[in-house]
Design a protein that fits this description.
- The chain is an alpha+beta fold.
- The protein is built from 12 helices and 19 strands.
Length: 433
């Protein structure tokens, strides 16, 4: 093709692209500025955001973008240089706009609620696992906070299952948020009949600020755990309502947070139509803690005990057992039995071949040997049991937990094995070979 013919086509295409971007930028900016001004939850920030998005500098930068998707990304980045708000974004998605318009123009609200009732049981309303761990420690894994009127009965059943636990661990490492009403329902189980102010929620609509307070309930269906040690596991992915529960319980000194600093997403958002192509996710509500006069937006919830999310479970498990031992708990012997094992696992010890070589040997009628990279313990001619090194001294049986071994060292050499059994006297076997 002749280059002289082709060049004007390229120029025309670029001009058209810039023209469309300029039109989009002005239209979208004006609509977003008004919505931010009227409804963004922090009024002084709303004013600054509206001034920015109406400025010529902002519009000029917007008009240099090459596509509608780029415009949305540019606006989101620029707005968050001021707001630094994880819930504030501009999205280019004509299909989403169309679907949202259809939904809002029809009487689908009740049908939508009914569909949620049908769908959420697939995920058990966010309750992934409830378990009683060795040492009589309760464990509850919650992946989402469903609305209380949907998941309340599941919560009640989980708490009844844990009613005799000596301590409780709530795992929110994979929880991205959900309903603040479920947060209140869950928190209520960990206080007595006197209600506790958890948070105040602020919302702005048409320039008017409204405040509502969240308090624990004087009634819960099932047992209360007002004196039960409570530990909450977090990760950098724990967000929104998961952070709200953690932040409130920590500020009340009712729970110990173990894990990673959370995502830092405190604000509640609405979905607003900008025009036929763009959506604004608009933070219009925020929690304010009555004790800190703040929340976790942008900062996240800082754990009391900071560790990797992968190791948070064993660190918290060891801590709750240790706290029960220090308080001379009613099941002291059980907690003392389980604690060394859990503490060893929390160290994330990786045994080496040198460690294996130290353990392998004969101890009277007992022997430890290695086969196919694994360690085994055998008494006389009985069947051999596979064992595992949790650290240099602690040896556990993979098949059962009622007994374990402890290596006794002298001058960095294993000279004996100590057999420990729950409720029985310890026995020591000297190395013979």
């Amino acid at each position: 093709m002749n280059n002289k013919v082709f060049k004007p086509l390229i120029v025309s295409s670029l001009v058209l692209c810039n023209y469309v971007s300029a039109a989009d930028c002005y239209d979208v900016s004006q609509n977003i500025a008004k919505q931010l001004e009227d409804n963004y939850v922090i009024e002084n920030t709303a004013t600054r955001l509206a001034q920015l998005i109406r400025s010529q500098v902002f519009l000029s930068g917007c008009e240099r973008q090459k596509s509608s998707e780029d415009i949305a990304e540019f606006m989101t980045l620029e707005l968050n240089k001021i707001a630094n708000d994880k819930h504030l974004s501009v999205v280019y998605d004509p299909n989403w706009v169309s679907e949202l318009k259809d939904y809002r123009s029809s009487a689908q609200t009740e049908a939508f609620a009914d569909s949620r009732v049908m769908e959420t049981p697939i995920d058990n309303y966010g309750f992934k696992k409830v378990e009683l761990l060795d040492g009589n420690i309760g464990y509850l894994d919650i992946r989402a906070f469903s609305d209380s009127h949907l998941g309340g009965e599941t919560l009640e059943n989980a708490m009844k299952f844990l009613q005799h636990a000596d301590g409780i661990i709530i795992d929110l490492r994979n929880n991205y948020g959900g309903s603040p009403f479920m947060v209140t329902s869950l928190a209520s189980y960990f206080f007595d009949l006197d209600t506790v102010h958890l948070s105040t929620f602020e919302s702005r609509e048409n320039g008017v600020l409204t405040q509502t307070q969240d308090w624990t309930s004087p009634y819960v269906p099932g047992p209360r755990f007002k004196d039960t040690p409570l530990y909450i596991l977090t990760s950098s992915n724990s967000a929104s309502a998961a952070e709200g529960f953690s932040y409130s319980m920590q500020s009340l000194n009712r729970a110990t947070i173990v894990g990673e600093v959370t995502a830092g997403a405190a604000h509640g958002r609405s979905t607003e139509i900008v025009n036929n192509d763009y959506i604004l996710t608009l933070p219009s509500t925020r929690p304010v803690n009555p004790r800190t006069n703040d929340n976790w937006e942008r900062k996240g919830v800082k754990p009391n005990i900071e560790t990797s999310s992968d190791n948070a479970f064993y660190v918290a498990y060891a801590e709750v057992l240790n706290s029960l031992i220090k308080s001379n708990s009613k099941n002291l012997g059980l907690h003392q039995w389980v604690y060394p094992l859990v503490k060893a696992k929390s160290s994330q010890y990786q045994p080496s071949q040198s460690d294996f070589n130290q353990i392998v040997g004969t101890f009277g009628e007992r022997k430890i040997f290695q086969k196919s990279g694994k360690l085994f313990y055998q008494y006389s001619n009985d069947p051999a049991f596979e064992i595992e090194l949790l650290d240099k001294k602690t040896i556990v049986f993979k098949a059962f937990t009622e007994a374990r071994l402890q290596a006794i060292y002298k001058n960095k050499q294993v000279i004996a094995l100590k057999m420990l059994s729950l409720g029985e006297d310890e026995r020591v076997f000297q190395r013979t070979m």
